[in-house]
Amino acid sequence: MSTKADELKLDIEEFNELLRRAGRQRSKDVLSLEIRRLQTELAKLIEENTSSSIKPTHSVSNPQKCYEVKLNNYGWDQTNTTMKLYVTLPNVHQLPMEAVTCNFTEKSLDLRVLGLDNKNYSLTINNLCEEIDVNQSFVKIKTDMVVVSLAKKVAKNWSHVTGVEKRIKELKAAAVSDMSNDSDVGACLMNLMKKMYQEGDDEMKKTIAKEWTEKAAGLPNIF
Questions:
Q1: Which positions ≥6 away from 214 have C-beta within 8 Å?
Q2: Which residues on adjacent β-strands are paired with residue 92?
Q3: What's the pTM value of the predicted model, to 2 decimals?
Q4: pLDDT, tens digit, 9 for 90 and up, residues 17-49
Q5: Number of helices and strands in the chain (H, E)
Q6: What does the DSSP assignment read for 66-110?
Q7: Measuring CA to CA, how many Å separate 63 from each of 48, 68, 113, 115, 164?
Q8: What is the DSSP letter of 16?
Q9: Degrees (nearest 5) of the Cα angle 146, 11, 32?
Q10: Contact between 222 and 213 (Cβ < 8 Å)
């Protein structure tokens, strides 16, 4: 890796440390924006270095652009002190270590996988179910998989990975308890979910859409 790439990596690490210490939300937003800019610059540099290291067998062609891919699916399990997220990505273990980064705050994570098969992958969770210890949380690369290890700030079982999932379950439970006629429960829940979808942010909409899709496919209710 070039000296410039090493410098970018050090800059990203330093900004991550500042992000962990930042107290005001505006400061966190500015730092997060700069981190993403540096990560994009690093991804382009990795892509250029990869392209230049491959000798063409026929004619020289322009390097392919990396497409942005947002990740929505992941597996997870937990202990009393740790929550682990498992993201399956074939061949991710062949990337250089600096191509996989994860920024943490007490209630969020931003995973980036840069330059994998001409794609930049991202998994962003802005509202974790509970707070985490940023300094003890980390990301690890395994064969065809990225593992994000979240150190729980308080040792206890999490009901869900995200606060959105937890909120949906609580609202659904409240709606069911308010119903006096069992035959209307389904319609009430559907109206509630539609209202939450229309008024919710991107993370809320993504979670609700995922539940509807899984119900339509006949899968178990994850809530």
A1: 220, 221, 222
A2: none
A3: 0.59
A4: 888 788 887 787 788 778 878 877 877 777 666
A5: 5, 8
A6: PEEEE----EEEE-SSEEEEEEE-TTGGGS-GGGEEEEEETTEEE
A7: 8, 16, 19, 12, 40
A8: H
A9: 65
A10: no
